[in-house]
Design a protein that fits this description.
Layout (H helix, E strand, L loop, with lengths): L4 H21 L4 H16 L4 H9 L3 H8 L14 H11 L8 H15 L2 H10 L2 H4 L4 H10 L2
């Protein structure tokens, strides 16, 4: 079976993201990198307004976009989590079966990947929507840039 080019392209792009994330997050393999990416994206998505969650999702590779939106209930967002430890706890809860993953490092790796792969304007919008403690989990360069465009 030959895949249509659009499917082959999104599979290839997703594989590249997972390999980068595997290395940056210290995941054992791409399956664990997928679990990390999914957990962090779901926690992030649920902190955003529905409009902003959709705008972020639109910039993800098609395959990643599919699991980003999986299980989403827009009417229940944004969830009111204000502290970094609550965000970290939520990611940890979604990583059952992957207890060896260093959750802080995993979150940092996903945020760095998003910062590198998505438009600066979209990342700025996302960061500016988050409470200060969760903003602090993003790479410093992204926070600094976003802070200069807020308000």
């Amino acid at each position: 079976m030959t895949l249509p080019p659009v499917f082959a392209s999104t599979i290839q792009e997703t594989q590249l993201w997972l390999k980068q994330l595997r290395d940056a997050a210290g995941a054992d393999n791409e399956q664990e990198a997928y679990a990390v990416l999914r957990a962090v994206l779901h926690q992030l998505r649920d902190r955003l307004t529905p409009d902003e969650a959709v705008q972020l999702g639109a910039q993800l590779p098609m395959l990643v976009r599919g699991f980003y939106f999986e299980g989403w209930v827009p009417s229940k967002t944004p969830e009111k989590i204000r502290h970094a430890d609550e965000f970290i706890h939520g990611v940890r809860g979604m990583l059952r079966g992957h207890e060896a993953v260093a959750v802080d490092r995993a979150i940092e790796a996903v945020f760095a990947l998003l910062n590198a792969e998505l438009s600066a304007g979209e990342i700025d919008d996302v960061i500016n929507m988050l409470p200060a403690e969760i903003k602090a989990l993003w790479p410093k360069a992204a926070r600094t840039r976003a802070g200069s465009h807020s308000g």
